[in-house]
Design a protein that fits this description.
Two copies of one chain form a homodimer. With 403 residues, the first copy, chain A, is α/β, with parallel strands linked by helices. Chain A folds into two domains: 153 residues, Aspartate Aminotransferase, domain 1; 236 residues, Type I PLP-dependent aspartate aminotransferase-like (Major domain) (Aspartate Aminotransferase, domain 2, 3-Layer(aba) Sandwich). Chain A is built from 13 helices and twelve strands. In chain A, the strands form three sheets. In chain A, strands 2-8-7-6-5-3-4 form a seven-stranded mixed β-sheet, with helices on both faces. Chain A has a three-stranded antiparallel β-sheet with strand order 9-12-11, with helices on one face. The first copy, chain A, is globular.
Chain lengths: 403, 403
């Protein structure tokens, strides 16, 4: 009998996207679904980004391949606009353009580890790390950070306890998707010191770097002294400029071996998308006022969502200081079942909402079973309505469960 | 000591792109390089494709993610324009959009085989198949087709001889990159029959389908009777519409397991590029006259290149009937060294050319050592000049070798 490969059968489906067929079905039947499930903001891309696409398309003879590492002018621009402001003298040779942040972390993981090797992650973590680990035969080992402690990073002893001869890297996102946790300078220095002492790569996914809600300056892993050879950065234009669909990201490292490896991977897939690179090029001219407005808007949304969540009986969500997500503990035993039920059964005024069950953001069995990730990416009136729907749904679901 | 993973170290560099730093250096020093090394045509994209990008960018609020499977209107359009004309009733559920043809064949290979398993390829084959096989721990076993026999497909006994319990698929490109070989209906039926009998997937890379230079109608693997569950098609808008940089391709199969697997892979990388999908959507309106003109142009280029090549002493290249490549045997012992020398040493009027050494298109040791792949993707005057350069280079290289 003809079957797909064992590995393909065993590959986990995206926890974030696997409910999509159910929401498609709800929407097809006329139901309005409030999408709090994906980090797909509804904020306008900078006008200069779209303008650049238009004017380049106007002049274009044909949509050609670019260099596998991406357009040199865009690499230069990102060095200038992304890394100079952090006080960093990154060169274009240390920055390679990827097909979104997804390819950047896939590449970073492949550079750091191979089949049978291990990467330490801080849980909860972005679920696609698990997918790419699986595809490459890499095992993720998780240091647990707890929702009830505001996802504080545990002592280094927790990292040390996971060390084996096969450990190759530590991987984290800062600000963190899904928790919204912003790592402190001290936490980063501690982790950096651990990586340096143990000869591990430190893969730091910084795609939400523009979304920090404290007055502290952002502390990039690239700024950890003595960790120059260890650090691999994952970055993207997606969130920064609301250009998610452009599929342009980058991998940054001062480690020459890593960059040579990244180029080999890049050559296999030929090049990043040209038109998305044009959008990113245009976006480099985005005025500071754009970022301020976006940041202010997210602070309003965050405050709205967090206040509403923590006012719901039995719900707890710690204040996120970065990104546009929060993890919330709900008064349900199985948040996966609840999320499904929202799409298949719950309706209020022919409306419902979609959230992401958090279990797949954890390696520790049971750790996230009652939790969901909420992306506060809707404008305020819609976000308020979504929160109202969630409250009603929890009440109704509670009644159903008791029956 | 900190080092990249063993697998990353061992990963082969792209044979097609690894000479790029040398050509960059030559160009930086003011030398004109005629690029016969990549299948990057210089033909204009259809006006309707660029127009669509412009008008969509005009109206766009933000560049958002799309469904992981791609825009449904584009999937419908491709079903209609790509597969209906072949007499096929493919559904949108049987077609998933990918990040270029590269992702489509990576996905197809992953669906068919896993670590420790094997795929039979017909050599010479597109070198990136080897890269993705390596990354997935898959072994390629090669059936040899010979340049001196016009790359005729050997008897099925040659395929049978490679069968092991780990064999999962046959993989080929038709028309073939790099040889320009167009598989006959009979050859496809024979291979299809073999796959059906042995329960193997038949992965057929048909990205050059629009570039056939015979009067026979193209025979897609999807048309092989009884092979409905076995066939996985790799397709792309890149070559068809001169939209290489748009990074939009697709994977097509009637096998539900394969498509469910393709969706899991697709969800991990979120979505294909939106702006490229807009270009592809616009391209669906490309008039038939465009394809006729492009085809006529490639026939002229092919004839020009092949006549020139076969007139050079010691050079042999069989007539290609599809795609825009030919493999040529040169009077050199090491075509890799020759290709490098072209970029580093050879100059004629401060010009040189770039070709791809063919060794990496073969698994059989030594099989392609004297051969290069030539992409006849330049307009006629430049192609003629490139051929003149090649002839002069061969003469000069011959003299250098004798010294």
């Amino acid at each position: 009998m003809l079957h797909i490969s064992k590995r393909a059968q065993e590959m986990p489906a995206s926890a974030i996207r696997k409910l999509v067929p159910l929401s498609d079905a709800a929407e097809a039947s006329g139901v309005t679904v409030y999408h709090l499930n994906v980090g797909a903001p509804d904020i306008a891309s900078p006008a200069c980004a779209l303008e650049a696409v238009k004017s380049r398309a106007e002049e274009l003879h044909h949509v050609s391949y670019t260099n596998s590492a991406g357009l040199i002018e865009l690499r230069r621009g990102m060095v200038e606009k992304y890394y100079k402001p952090l006080g960093l003298d990154i060169t274009t040779a240390q920055l390679l353009l990827t097909v979104g942040g997804s390819e950047a972390f896939a590449t970073a993981m492949q550079a750091a580890a191979g089949p049978g090797e291990e990467i330490i992650v801080v849980e909860p973590f972005y679920t696609n790390y698990q997918t790419y680990a699986f595809l490459n035969g890499i095992t993720l080992k998780a240091v647990h950070s707890d929702i009830r402690e505001g996802f504080r990073v545990p002592d280094i002893s927790a990292f040390e306890a996971l060390l084996t001869p096969a450990t190759r890297a530590v991987l984290l996102s800062n600000p963190c998707n899904p928790s919204g946790k912003l790592f402190t300078r001290e936490e980063m220095l501690k982790i950096g010191d651990f990586c340096r002492r143990q000869d591990l790569f430190l893969i730091c996914d910084e795609v939400y770097r523009e979304f920090c809600y404290t007055d502290e300056p952002y502390f990039s892993a690239l700024c950890i002294p003595g960790c120059e050879q260890n650090v691999i950065i994952v970055d993207s234009v997606s969130k920064r400029y609301n250009l998610c669909g452009s599929r342009v990201g980058c991998i940054v490292s001062r480690n020459e071996e890593v960059m040579a490896c990244a180029l080999k991977y890049a050559q296999a897939r030929l090049c990043p998308p040209l038109l998305g690179q044009y959008a990113a090029l245009g976006a480099l001219d985005t005025p500071a006022s754009y970022f301020k407005e976006v940041r202010d808007e997210y602070i309003r949304r965050r405050d709205c969502a967090l206040e509403a969540l923590n006012a719901m009986p039995g719900v707890y969500a710690p204040m996120p200081y970065g990104a546009f997500y929060t993890v919330a503990e709900l008064p349900v035993a199985d948040a996966g079942d609840f999320a499904k039920w929202l799409l298949t059964d719950f309706r209020d005024g022919n409306e419902t909402l979609m959230v992401t069950p958090a279990a797949s953001f954890y390696k520790t069995p049971g750790a996230g079973d009652s939790q969901v990730r909420i992306a506060y990416v809707l404008e305020l009136p819609r976000l308020r309505r979504a929160m109202e729907l969630l409250q009603k749904a929890l009440t109704e679901y509670g009644k159903c469960q008791k029956r």
